[in-house]
Amino acid sequence: MVNMWDSNPEIRTSAGDSAMPAPPDPRILFAAERTLLAWQRSSVALMGLGFVIERFSLFLSALRRESEVPSRHLVSMLVGVALILLGATVALVSSISFRRFVKTLSADAVPPGYWVSFGFVINLLVSFAGLCLAGYLLVSANAPALSR
Predict the structure, then answer these.
(1) Is 96 exposed, middle or buried, given 0-12, 13-18 or 19+ CB atoms closer than 10 A?
(2) Sign of the Cα pseudo-torsion (106, 107, 113, 117, in order)
(3) Are 123 and 94 in contact (CB under 8 A)?
(4) In angstroms, rounded to a whole number, what is the distance separating the alpha carbons of residues 73 and 55?
(5) Rounded CA separation 64/72 (Å)
(6) pLDDT confidence tier of residue 18, bands split at 50, 70 and 90
(7) Which of 127, 54, 118 has the alpha carbon at shortest distance from 87?
(8) Cα 120 to Cα 116: distance, rounded to the nearest angstrom
(9) What integer is the mean pLDDT of 3-16?
(10) By C-alpha distance, which of 31, 22, 28, 85 is closest to 53?
(11) What percentage of the chain's residues is helix, strand, coil (to nearest 5)?
């Protein structure tokens, strides 16, 4: 016979009328952290794809064996930088969302000595690196035009 209280997060007494809260489950924190890391992988993949697309014109000029300075294609630069910025935004938003969720957890839900902020800090660094990369690519794209 299936007990209808099995799926309830409260522990019922034998009388069934009073409830005692269940002990906090650290699996909730770990599931949230796995989700943060999945978003982190997605953001790094978006930034990597953006970098490859932005530098695709360099690859094409190498295939054509052009001896002069390769021309930059505006479309590949814009799409690549947009993907890099999207990846940086995904990293930033997911880290903020994770931080908000962790603040809702009770202190008992976090195992003693566990550093909850590690994934958050790494995600912020990934976001910052993406913003720096996008800025560098935009400045380097305009550098030859400025020197003429």
Answers:
(1) middle
(2) positive
(3) yes
(4) 9
(5) 14
(6) low
(7) 127
(8) 8
(9) 52
(10) 85
(11) 70, 5, 30
Residue type, position 60, single letter: L
CA distance 133 to 44: 12
Q: Please write the tens of the pLDDT for every residue from 68-77.
A: 655 667 888 8
Contact (Cβ atoms closer than 8 angstroms) between residue 98 and residue 36 = yes
State CA 13 to chain mean position distance: 43
Q: Which two structure tokens, joined as six digits, stand for 69?
A: 């300075």
**Cα–Cα dist 126/121, whole Å:** 9
Tell me if residue 42 falls in helix, strand or coil.
Answer: helix
Q: What are 85-120's pLDDT values in tens digits?
A: 999 999 999 999 999 999 998 888 888 888 888 999
SS3 11: strand
DSSP 88-143: HHHHHHHHHHHHHHHHHS-GGGSPTT--THHHHHHHHHHHHHHHHHHHHHHHHHHH
Residue type, 13: T
Q: So where are the chain's domains?
A: 25-147
